[in-house]
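Hey,

Quick one before I head out. I ran the complex with adenosine-5'-diphosphate overnight. Inputs first:
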Amino acid sequence: MSEDAGNGRDIVFRVRDLCKDYRMGEVTVSALRGVTLDVAAGEFLVILGPSGSGKSTLLNIIGGLDAPTAGEVYFRDEVLTNYTDAQRTRYRRSRIGFVFQFYNLMPNLTAEENVALATEIADDPIAPIEALRLVGLEARRAHFPSQMSGGEQQRVAIARAVAKRPEILLCDEPTGALDFSTGKVVLEVLSDINVRLGTTLVVITHNAAIGGMGDRVVRMSDGHARDIVVNARRLTTDELEW
Amino acid sequence: MRVLHKKLLRALLKTPGQSLAVIMVVLCGTACYICIASAYRNLVLTRDTYYAQYRFADFEIYLERAPRTVAARLSAIPGARRVRGRIVKDVKVDVPGERESRIGRLISMPETPEPVLNDICLRRGRYFSEGAQNEVIVNERFALHNGLALGDRIDVSIESRRYPLRIVGLALSPEYVYMIRNVQELVPSFERFGILWVPEPFAETALDMREACNNIIGVVDEIAVLDGVLDRAEQTLESYGVFAKTKREDQISNRFLSDEIKGLGVSARIVPAIFQGIAALILLVLLNRMVRTERTQIGLLKAYGYTNLQVAVHYLQFALILAALGTVGAFGVGQWLAYEMVQIYVQFYQFPLLEARVYPDVLTRSVGIALGFAVLGALSAALRAARIHPAESMRPAAPRHAHRVWLERFTRVWRRLGFAGKMICRNISRNAFRAGISAFGVMVSAAILIVGFFTVDAFRYGLHMQFYEMQRHDLKVSFQLEQGKPTYYDVLRFAHVREAEPVLEYPFEMRNGWRKKDIIVTGLPRDARLQRLLDAEGAHVDVGEDGLSLDEHVARTLGVAVGDRVTLKPLMGRIKKEREVVVRRVYRQYLGIGAYMNIDALSRLLDEPFAMNAALLRTEKGRNADADVVLRDVAAIASIVSRDRAYQAVLDTIAQSMKVMNVMLVLFAGVIAFAVIYNVTSVSLAERQRELASLRVMGLTISEVGRILYVENFVLGGLGLIAGFPCGFALCRLLIRAYDSDLYRLPFHIEPRTLIVTTILTIAFILIANLAVNVKVRRLDLVEVLKERE
Ligand SMILES: Nc1ncnc2c1ncn2[C@@H]1O[C@H](COP(=O)(O)OP(=O)(O)O)[C@@H](O)[C@H]1O
Ligand SMILES: [Mg+2]
């Protein structure tokens, strides 16, 4: 790909000719048809594309949730795509934070306990209450998910993902289920974490407006990474036009 | 196929494990029902036809000696239909080639075949030939177990004479379906005890009973008049020394058989109900969850025009299909079990024909029961589905609020719990009903195990107490006639005899007011060492100088306590005088009933200075059999009973069927615990798959995620197990009460081993269910689950 993964920074992921086919009986659906892409340490990468273009599939493979049909993903010097199930679990546990469109919080646990879920299995976590403070929800620590709004729940999910100090934060349509203003708050929180903690941030969206917030924007369609745009300047949420 | 039916089928196939678990529980319940109900039918039918065909008597009277003509007088009593006088006597039998003697019960039969009461059913050979004096028909099993065939010879010793008899026929009798000599024996010993049917003339000569009889049997017009007839008969027989009257319901063989039938009848109600009840509970959880997840679909169906009834029936059908599949499988398994059951019965009971039959109405009823319970289990879900309003269903269900649990008040403990512990606590409290069902299932399973093992424990314990704690002798010899002191010294001098104590056994009617009981009072010397009485705490109770020592059960049925007086009326001999005797002590025994006295006091009661009619012997170590051989040639001795052999016989006979029963019980308990836990956990897993999958995404391993479910199961299972103990104990007590009879009482005795094994098995059941759930956790498709909207 022509656009460099950025100004001499370390490369975290090297994605090479990645293909993913889903076989459903007679029919084979190709979700990825040879994606090549680098992700640099500490950058904020936006993956933009219409629904069905393969964004989630790509993110899931990078995040160690799924295996490709062909091609490789290198995580630093290691071939991620050769990992066994157990290795992938360990990898997710120590390196990756996930945020999804639906928050997937434990309904039985309070906000703080949901975050503690992640910190209890991490080596060097942020204290749960600190993580909540990062997303501006320390006051809601004792609330259960059902007592919070969607945006608040998503911020708890982010706190949970961040609390174990992952190197990479992968977000699949984090604002997909939220209205405009709530979505902006969530994006601000994410961007803030990227800057303050230096966490590599990959955000998937079908909303072109969000692209402006990232360092680079990858456009996907039909299972291909079509082009990469390097933003001269990251926009703040206030500057976004929805 | 209608579309709804397709949906139904897919739903069943989508959760094959859960469907299968429900099917298994229904199958077990139905198979049990078929097996038990068929056995019940089988025994009742076989018994009734057998009794009718061979004219089994309604009553039996034992007396000293009466002229044969008395039978005609008795049959003139209004209500008495037929009466027969016969001669019955236990004698020593020697089988050529066998070292030890057997006991044979001589029963006189007409010289030529007649349709008499208590007739015999000839299986092989023939009836007596005209005028033959040395012919005998023996019961089939006695011949079989002693390797005797038609034409073989056995020797009968009466008084001091030996009579060689030739076996001409093998037979069965309705009197000896369950063939034991007396209640104490408990199980048949086919080798050691046989029935010898002999021609009347032979019995009369050999037993010196010319034109006389000592046993009267009869039938009455209807059972309602039986008591009246017996009272009149007793008056008629006053001068002939009646020492026992037995109604059909108390006749030993019939009593055991009836008890078994009664037990089957009760089990046929209880056992299937347990299984089907559990199946209903599982369906309740399963279908309610299904209706909750399919809320929107149900609304949609109704919007299209499906009626409430159609929707409700749809969910009922789900339950009915599973129940139907279970019953279909159960037909095979149930019939097979019924067959096995008959094989066991054939060992214990001797019928001319006992075979496993198919009872269509039992099958029909089994289906009815299974489907009925299934409907019961599905009802609440079906109603819930019927009540769903199409418009409302399109809106998401109101979120169920998580709330704090009381444990959180103990902040210290709560903090320590970790997220998994917290999730478990909150989940249990949020789904309290479902959690309750898990615990309940384990409780039932554990209680079944405890009751099952308890019967073995109690039985073994009762047996051990009777044979080794109370009885301390190796052999018991009974004499033909009453003997004086010299015999006691004679007995002591026999080879291999180390110790001996005299015994006097005498039948009495014991009375307290209107309550009375026929009982044998046993006289023992003071400080008897070879037969001990023990109280409830196991402390030694001595017969003392005078007064009666009564077994608890007898004291209870007569309503007497220590210090009370009872009236004793001798049932044998010439003394007719009634005496009042004070009850001095109460002791406990588990087999049969008993009353003891000082032997001198008992002798005085019979107006004799000293009498004995049996002796207890302790032999030199390991010389039991040798002593037996010496004693069998002593003419005065009527029978010899070896304690070890009697004990072993009981144990051997019972052990096999108990083993089979316990294997089944463990299997059943396992199915219940597994099915409940597996289903409830599966439902819980389905409901929480999103949260659990997101834990996997966060990097928790399969076992870490699984642990949340397993620990919850172990917590609930532990609670169930703890509740299962008292529940099991309570059932044991019920069982004890149900089995309380003159024949035997079960002690409330549970070995620690039983509790340990129950605990281990319960843990194993939960573990197996968890392993099955683990497969589901492993299969959890992270990507897929997270894609779905809540
Ligand atoms: N499990 C699956 N089975 C079959 N097809 C799938 C599966 N997951 C995704 N797809 C298909 O792969 C393509 C890409 O999907 P996805 O990566 O989810 O797209 P996006 O996230 O960009 O909307 C789509 O056409 C989708 O239908
Ligand atoms: Mg997507």
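Helices of chain A lie at 55-62, 85-95, 111-119, 128-134, 150-162, 180-197.

Talk tomorrow,
K.
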